[in-house]
Design goal:
- With 334 residues, the protein is α+β, with helices and mostly antiparallel strands.
- The chain is 49% helix and 16% strand.
- Helix 1 packs across helix 7 and helix 3 runs parallel beside helix 8.
């Protein structure tokens, strides 16, 4: 691409995004100098590490604006991640009456979403090739000197929306597959769930669902056996898990959605640690309150699990006492 052509592409994208051309040029220079991202690792369950790539300004601002432009095209009927009005709970709710439950997720989902795949999807929704390629350069992180080695970064700016866009066609095909068989299907980022009120989902159809996702990804997405789970309702009680939530209750009676024991234990540990360290700071309180609000969004008017609710009430009471002492509103008896 000539210098003049590149300037024209930058000008067109800047106008589309409503930002300065200079910011795009600065972001491209930072990408070239390998200074556009902060990179670190966090523990990955059940083992290993996950690398996080968080864009610095102005690249993060550009990524957010690109996400805003493509958002309307990224929404599908089965996607519940990073879509207004949808959540973990709405992704689980359609499966409430399930008697057979099949879940699977894509291995290393964001790193498997390659730059070429991103650019192709930008072109499909109407962007010119040169503009789509520039957008993909700005969206993707490359650990090498070659931009074609780029993939979606795990840095929480635009990647989830772009990922939804990439899976939009897959979502439509999976929806048709499921409707034809009377199944329910939902997706949250790279986590899929398919269920039926019948006794079983045949093994051949579970394999076909996986094949749909893998084949429509230009060969980028892989779903190994260890990334799948299949359960059928056994006995009189039902217990299915998805996204850290559970569907449980009598097979032929009223079922409810709750939070899995492992996640509840994590929440309890965070509160217990804050109590032991006497961390009543505003930041820690916001973190804990965010977890409690999440639980409230799941239980929707029902009592929260006592093992977390009681500990939270204790933490909140202690925080009020400590803050009262700091303000001089309480004093120790002499």
């Amino acid at each position: 691409m000539t210098g003049l052509a590149k300037r024209e592409v930058i000008s067109e994208l800047a106008e589309t995004l409503g930002i300065s051309q200079d910011l795009i040029r600065l972001a491209l220079w930072m990408l070239k100098m390998k200074s556009a991202y902060r990179v670190w690792s966090i523990p990955k369950k059940p083992s290993g590490e996950r690398q996080i790539q968080a864009a610095r300004w102005p690249l993060n601002e550009i990524q957010v604006r690109i996400a805003g432009e493509i958002y309307p095209y990224s929404i599908s009927e089965i996607s519940h991640s990073f879509v207004a009005g949808r959540s973990h709970r709405t992704a689980v709710f359609p499966h409430l009456r399930a008697n057979a439950f099949f879940t699977f997720d894509i291995k290393d989902a964001f790193p498997s979403a390659r730059k070429k795949q991103v650019a192709v999807n930008f072109r499909w929704i109407g962007f010119k090739k040169a503009v789509a390629d520039l957008m993909a350069d700005l969206i993707c992180y490359s650990p090498t000197e070659k931009s074609e080695d780029g993939f979606l970064p795990q840095g929480y700016a635009s990647s989830p929306t772009v990922f939804n866009l990439i899976l939009n066609t897959t979502d439509r095909v999976l929806l048709g597959f499921s409707q034809k068989r009377g199944y329910q299907v939902t997706r949250y980022v790279d986590n899929f769930a398919i269920s039926t009120t019948q006794k079983t989902i045949p093994k051949e159809e579970r394999k076909l669902a996986i094949k749909i996702v893998e084949s429509l990804s230009l060969g980028n997405f892989k779903i190994p056996e260890e990334k799948t789970s299949y359960r059928e309702a056994g006995g009189k009680e039902v217990h299915f898990e998805f996204l850290g939530l559970v569907i449980e209750g009598p097979r032929d009676g009223e079922r409810k959605i709750g939070v899995a024991d492992e996640k509840l234990a994590d929440y309890r540990w965070v509160i217990q640690e804050a109590l032991e360290k006497e961390d009543f700071s505003e930041g820690k309180f916001r973190e804990i309150r965010g977890k409690i609000n999440y639980l409230k969004s799941i239980y929707q008017g029902r009592a929260l699990p006592s093992q977390v609710a009681e500990l939270y009430n204790q933490y909140r009471s202690m925080r009020e006492i400590v803050n009262a002492f700091k303000r001089g509103q309480l004093s120790l008896p002499i």
